[in-house]
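Hi everyone, sorry if this is the wrong subforum. Our group has a chain we'd like a structural model of before ordering constructs, and none of us has done structure prediction before. Sequence below.
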Amino acid sequence: MKKRILSLLLAALLLLSLLPAASLPAWAEGEIVAEGIWCSTLEWSLDEEGWLYLFTPDCDDMPLGEWNEESGHYEMPWYPYREQINTVQLANIAAVCEDAFYGCTHLETVLIYGDPDTIHPTAFADCPLQDFYCSFDLATLDWILDNSGIEEL
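Answer:
Right subforum, don't worry. Here is the predicted structure as C-alpha cells:
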C-alpha cells in the first residue's frame, strides 16, 4: 500500500513539473500594492513583501519602458516602486529588455521560469543581485550570461 501511495505521489509531482510557467503559483503571500498590464502583453504585480511578478501569456519579449531623457534610461511601469523590489519572478518571458530593473537597489533575487532568449546587459543595472534561479539548463544560462554582460552572480 505504501508503495502505491508513493507511486501516485511521484506521478503527481511529475505531472506538476510538466505544467507551463503560467500555472506556477506565486510564492509570496503579501497584499498587492501595485499592478498593471504594460503594452497589452506584460502583466505585472508587486506585493507588500517586495516580490515583483511578471508574466506574458504568449511568451513575448518584455516591451521597453518609457525613455527618460534626464536619467538616460528606460523606465518600466514599476520604476516608481523600484526601492521596494527585492525579488523578481519572471514567467513565460522570451527576452528581458534594456533597463528592465534599472535602479532596483534592493533587488537581490531573480527567479526565471521558461526559457528566455536574451537578458539585456543593462536589465539588472544597479541591482545587488545575490541569487539567480532558473528553470532552464545550465548551457542556456551560460549562453545568456555570456551575451548579457552580467559578470558575476
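For your construct planning: The longest strand covers residues 32-38. The beta strands are 32-38, 42-47, 51-55, 66-68, 73-75, 87-91, 95-96, 109-113, 118-119, 131-134.
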